Amino acid sequence: MMETGSSRILVIKLGALGDMVQAFGPFAAIRRHHEGAHITLLTSPLYADFAAASGLFDEVWQDDRPKFSHLREWQALRHRLRAGDFSRIYDLQTSDRSSFYFRLFWPGPYPEWSGIARGCSHPHANKKRDMMHTIERQAEQLRVAGIETFPAPDFSWVEADIAKFGLPPRYALLVPGGAPHRPAKRWPVERYGELAVWLDRQGILPVLIGTRDEGEILAAIYEACPQCRSLAGQTDFFHIAALAHGAVSAVGNDTGPMHLIAAAGCASVVLYSHESDPALCAQRGPRVAILRRASLDDLDTPQVEKVLAALWQERTTS
Q1: Which of 256, 251, 254, 248 is nearest to 301 (CA)?
Q2: Residue segments in the chain with a per-residue pLDDT below the cut of 70
Q3: Which of 109, 144, 179 finishes a domain?
Q4: Residue 95 domain-assigned?
Q5: Cα–chain center distance at 52
Q6: Pair 238, 164: CB distance under 8 Å
Q7: Does residue 107 have a cis bond before it (omega within 30 degrees)?
Q8: What is the pLDDT of residue 268?
């Protein structure tokens, strides 16, 4: 049952990017369920502007995640949470840290709380919750709290100036980076170079997405295919979503930007190794293909090309 009125709701979602992207469906579900409520998001500074632009929240608070030894910062956070006069809090982070925030309301009164904090009013008590995909896990958590309708994440609202990049009508996004401490999650850069050459032969400009710290990886692909366009360090979340809207397709490792690209509707191929399990965290979107190998060294370029071609065929026949 949809609730209406002037209640105050807090949603906690701190990150990371992939989890943040997949929370936009629950964000919309909470907004729809609490029609007329004042809804605040507590999130990491990195995601604050992007979440605020969605129109799903009346306020966005930034959480600097104070260290447990910084008592003054914890006192300030406790005061802010208690002064918020929230009738219900949805903890979509469900971490030890965010669950500890429930304790900051001691000695009470406590708001209604959806999450896994001990003693909360609407606990997601499924012992197998950590074996569920993020989207199904959050949907089940919200059902416990009385929310039954769950739209897919929608990024049609994103606006960004991508004309400045001067891209042609047909381009594909390549996302060869990822967490530097988990190199096994990355497809070899040589394979990306081969794929870029193949895309160029199809009349599709390969566009490389990555941070400035990944510039060396992108430079190696550019060396293999000088026709590439590198946007290393030039894109934020708004740019990435807007680029995804116009791209023919995208190929990338299991990394945060691929969550946003896939959810924005781009035909996407995401490459997985043994380092992560797509059953728990796969990118979701209207046209997403997951390729998983024990080692991404065993995944050759023609396999990826074949899946891309199938996605293109699906696009033209649907």
Answers
A1: 251
A2: 1-6, 315-318
A3: 144
A4: yes
A5: 15
A6: no
A7: yes
A8: 98
Alpha-carbon span 247 to 241, nearest angstrom: 10
pTM: 0.95
pLDDT of residue 313: 83
Shortest CA distance to 239 belongs to which of 170, 167, 287? 167
Domain hosting residue 80, numbered range: 3-144
CATH number assigned to the domain comprising residue 243: 3.40.50.2000
Nearest of 170, 157, 155, 160 to residue 264 by alpha carbon: 155
Q: What is the pLDDT of residue 316?
A: 62
**Is 102 exposed, middle or buried, given 0-12, 13-18 or 19+ CB atoms closer than 10 A?**
buried
Token pair for 302 = 């023609």
> 263-275 pLDDT, tens per residue?
999 999 999 999 9
Q: Name the token pair of 263.
A: 């959810």
Residue with tokens 């074949």: 306
Residues 177 and 302 in one domain: yes
Sign of CA dihedral 20, 55, 30, 122: positive
Q: Where does residue 113 fall: left (phi above 0), alpha (psi -120 to 50 degrees), or beta otherwise?
A: beta
For residue 80, the Cα-to-chain-centroid distance in whole angstroms is: 27
Q: Are residues 185 and 224 in the same domain?
A: yes
The verdict on residue 29 lying in a domain is yes
Examine the fold and report which residue of 86, 117, 144 is the final residue of a domain before the chain moves on: 144
Q: Is the residue at 235 inside a domain?
A: yes
Taking the alpha carbons of 136, 277, 253, 97 in that order, is the dihedral positive or negative?
A: positive
Phi, psi torsion values for 212, nearest 5 degrees: -60, -35
| 197 within some domain | yes
